[in-house]
Amino acid sequence: MLYISYSVYGCVSDYVLVWEIKSRRKRRYAAMLSVLLWDVTGELCLLSCPCLQEETSSAKKTIHYLKLSAPWDVLVYYAEELCLRAPLQAQPHPDFNTSARVLQKLWVPNVMADFVPNRPVDYYTCAFRKSKMEKFLGSEDHQNYFSITQRHRIVYEILARTVYGKRKHAEVGAARLLNEGAFKAAFPLHEGPFELPDYEISPDQLNKRQILYHYWARWSKWYKYQPLDHIREYFGEKIALYFAWLGFYTAWLLPAAIVGTFVFVSGIMTMGSNTPAKEICESGGHYLMCPLCETCKPWNMSDICPMAQVGYLFDHPGTVFFSVFMSFWAVTFLEYWKQLSPESLDLISQNIQIYQTFQKTWPHSHSYSFRLLFTEMHRTQTQYEDAFTFKVFIFQFVNFYSSPFYVAFFKGRFVGYPGHYGTLFGMRNEDCGPGGCLIELAEQLFIIMIGKQLINNVQEFVIPKVKAWRQKKALASVKKAQGGLEPQRWEQDYELVACEGLFDEYLEIVLQFGFITIFVAAFPLAPLFALLNNWAEVRLDAHKFVCEYRRPVAERAQNIGVWFIILEALSHVSVIVNAFLIAFTSDFLPRLLYRYKFNSDLHGYVNFTLAYAPPSYNYSSHGMYKAFRDENGSYTLVYWELLAVRLGFIIAFEHVVFSVLRVIDWMVPDVPESLELKVKRERYLAKQALADNQEALLVSGSWRAAQVSAHSGVHTLHSRLYEA
């Protein structure tokens, strides 16, 4: 094994490049790699101190580790180029979050609170300026002024912009070299091991990775608040926002799960009072039903007694109430998330990054979306990611939701009637089962919310471990050649799995959000199973990022991006779908019409929903089927009355729900007043620090400083995210 290390004396390595060469091809690649590395790392090496190089070798494989560290001048230049945030003034952390204050007022012990050591200091910040360096806190300490994640970001940008060949051939950046296999890996280093030492140690002496593991990633912390400040400091805003959103969404699932469970239990308790089910069970051979398929035989209505009783659990007045409740829940959840997220105000100045293809950060299963995107030529990375996300979600939406939509709205709608059945390509159209389409939809949702989510969690737990095992096995011969020496930090990190990003994590939860809102009228227990899944999901994702993934480059973000737009679209679609589901798939409106027009206790309702087969029907002229038709197969007056009721219900349902949602949108401000004051203070401090004429600024801004200083203790946006 050949090990090469380039680092700055007295500096911490900011980034590691890894490539492998088999010994028999060593001479062929030596010259090419020397030129390539000079091109890719030239800016760093030329401005760095002399390099440190060590070499060892073996017969089978050569692994090169190139440790990079940016000097002060490079850091300062790119900090201004990338508009990194510089600290102006420390601000206090809030003592409690919202739930803690509520529990304190109720005199309830807060078991969710947990003391996490070494909480990062929060600052008022502004865009970095080299000419105003003396205005920023800690600028005299060149060694520690820039955070570790900022140094990672700067080195990553240098590597991403470096031209190593011909620019017209897009031979730019280490990302392409990774895609082409020239480099095996490129990653920043973790800050030490995540395992706690065998000896007793003070919590304040734990490294950042150990703190995240001990106070966040362990399964025993499933009910504790997430340490979002520490996550943000170690992984950056983008990953911290994902976990903040996931935690916030999971917390909001709790009331939805409680109400859904109550609705389901109330259905069990009132099952005995279900008159139509009693009539079906006691009918015996009174209702002889027509065959459901060409090769089926006639059957008695009493045969589906168990299905009729179970079907009531998913089709009773409580499910209608729950669908309305979930429509309000979905939009209110998004409104409050929008208030808590930094979407409305630019607290994190984002420079627009020119688009660079980095295909390894996206799942290979979405290659069809890449082919579509290559023809669009998006200019910025944000535009590219949003377009990619939208296209993949459309594909996945059709893939996951097509079957439930078919069962809910199309299956059994075009069957026809005995003697005149509808056909497609010469085959009779599929009809719903004896228990109806709604119970089939509930069965599908049960399988998705339990079976599929359980399989996904098992995969998330097993697959990273299998990949890590394969990586360690591939490096076993190299470790053996070291003669039992303790592996270095970069060697340990190379044995980990490459970080796969957040795309699949967001996609999984957003699809789940669709299932618990769009089809919730058919399965009230969906929020409960989503809540249980997400409790496990938070720990699985935390464990992957802390223990099993190489450290990703910290990325800045203002919000969850295009996913919020998709969530808003799903919440509006759920209102429409639930209205149609209640109107056309459930028996709520037919029962309501029968109560109003014929019998309030629903006696005779089963016979009301059945029609006799036409006399010309081959099997039996006395056979019955579920429809509002006369003996000739024509629709009865009741059918048209019921159709009018259904359409009226849809219009009323949508107008009432959307009107209330607009009121909620108006009542809940997108930006809290405390946050507006905090932003004004930050902008004032930024102007004060960056202005050339300080005296004129202080005179013109004295009244504003007096106004905002009274509110200097209000919560910051980041502390509001901590409430999730």
TrEMBL record:
It is found in: Cell membrane; Membrane. The keyword Transmembrane applies. GO terms for cellular component: plasma membrane. Residues 52-228 form the Anoctamin dimerisation domain. One of its GO terms (molecular function) is protein dimerization activity. Residues 231-339, 371-682 form the Anoctamin transmembrane domain. The chain crosses the membrane at residues 239-265, 388-409, 509-532, 560-584, 637-658. It is a multi-pass membrane protein. Pfam families: Anoct_dimer, Anoctamin. Keywords: Cell membrane, Glycoprotein, Membrane, Transmembrane, Transmembrane helix. Belongs to the anoctamin family. PANTHER family: ANOCTAMIN (PTHR12308). This is Anoctamin.
